[in-house]
What we know:
The protein has 466 residues and is α/β, with parallel strands linked by helices. It contains 16 helices and 17 strands.
Amino acid sequence: MSEKYSNFMTLDYFFNPKTVAIIGASHNPGKIGYAVLENFVKGGYQGKIFPINPDNTPIFDLPVYKSLREAPAKIELAVIAVPAKFVPKVLKECVEENVKAVIIISAGFSEIGEEGKKLEDQLRKIISKKNIRVLGPNVVGVYDSSSKLDTLFLSQERLQRPKEGNISFITQSGAVGSTVIDWLADEGVGISKFISYGNALDVNETDLLEYLSQDEKTKVIIAYIEGIRAQGKKFLETMKKIAHKKPIVVLKAGKTERGTKAVASHTGSLAGSAKIYSAVFKQAGIIEAMSWEELFDYSKALSMQPLPLGDNLLIITNGGGFGVLATDEAERLNLELKELSTKLKTDLGKVLPNYVSLANPMDLVGDSTSDRYRIAIEHAVKEFDGLVVITLFQVPTLEENIVDVVIDAKKYGKPILCCATGGKFTQRLSERLELSGVPVYPTPERAVKAFAAISKYSKIQNFKKA
C-alpha cells in the first residue's frame, strides 16, 4: 500500500468509521457528552455507537460501557468529551485498545497558556510513534453529510446541518465554522464535510488538505485559518499541488496587531504577518477571501458553476441603478466589460423594444418580461465569458418563469450568477434557482465579486496546465 493511499485511509476513519465510542457520553442533557451522543443517534449515523461512562445506565436506549475495554467491538473512532485533566488517561486507553482515530473535543490545552501547553505535550508523547491519528483538542469536530457522522456538540434544533453537497470546510475555529455551516444550511447550500481541527496536536491543515484533494465527494475546499501549525514549506507545497485540481478558498484571521494577540489566546498558534500569508496564498494559487461573506460567496459560485474561459462579463438587469452598481464593482476588480458587437446590437434591436439599452450593462428596463430576458441571454451569451443576471422579481411584468429561463441558460456552459434582492417572494424564487445550481446574491457587488473569483481560479488552473 502506498504512503499516499495509506494516509488517506487512516484519515478516512474520521469520516467513515464503522464503530464509534463516545467517551464521556452523559445522561445529563446539559452536558456536551449528551449532545454529541444525541446527534449521532438522531442524525442518521448507520454505524455502531458505544457510549462510555462509569455510570452504565442506558442512554437513548443504548447500553453504556464503563470503559473502552468493555466495548464489545473494535473501535475505529473515539470521541473524547471529558475534562482536560482526564484526557491523557483516556487517550492512553485508546492507544492500548488500537483505536484508529480520536477526536478530542475537550478544551483547556495550549490555548489557555503554559499549563495547558504542558498537558497538550503529554498527549503528544502518548501518541508518539503510535498507529493512531488525533484531531484536536479544542474542537467541535466533524460533520459528514454522507455518512451522517456528527460530533458537533451543538444541537440540530439550534444549528442546522447542511444537505449533501460538494464543498468541504476546514476551520481552526469551531465557533466560526459552525456558524458558517448554519448559514449554508439556511441558504440551501450543500456540503460534503465540515472539519474543526482546533489546536492541531496531530492532524493539521496540511493533512486535511491532502485528504480532501483525494476525496471524490469534495469539489471545492474552503478554510478558515488563524495560524499555520504545519511546517510552512510543506503547507505551501501541498496547496500548490492541490490548487490545479480543486479550488481552495481561504479566510485568514488575525491580520491586525490585536487580532494576532487574540489568535494566540484562542488556539495557541502564531498568526504571522497578513502580508506574508497573502503572498503565500497568491503564490500557491489560493483564492483569498477577505471576509466570511466572501468565503461563502466564492465557494458557492465555484461549487455550482463552470469556470469561465476569460473575464469578459455581461451584466443584464431590469433595474438601471443595480446595473450601475455592478459596473462599478466590475471596474474596481478590473473585469472586462466589452460592448456588444454591431451585429448583436442589430439582431437584438429587431426583437427587443427600442427603449432597451443595448450596452454593457444591458438594461431591459422596468417593464421587462421573462421572454425579454430569454432573448437577451440566448443572443448575447456567445460573445461573453459569463453573465451576471440581475432580476428584480418585484416588477409586475416579470413572470415567475424567469426562474426557468435562467436555469435553462445553463445549457450554454457559461457561468451564470444571479442577483436578487427582496423579501419572501424574492427568497422563494431565489431558492428555486439555487436548488437548480444557479447561485443568487443579494447585492450586485457580491455577484460580480463571485464571478471575479471563479475567473481568477480559471486563470490559476490554466496556468498550472500550461
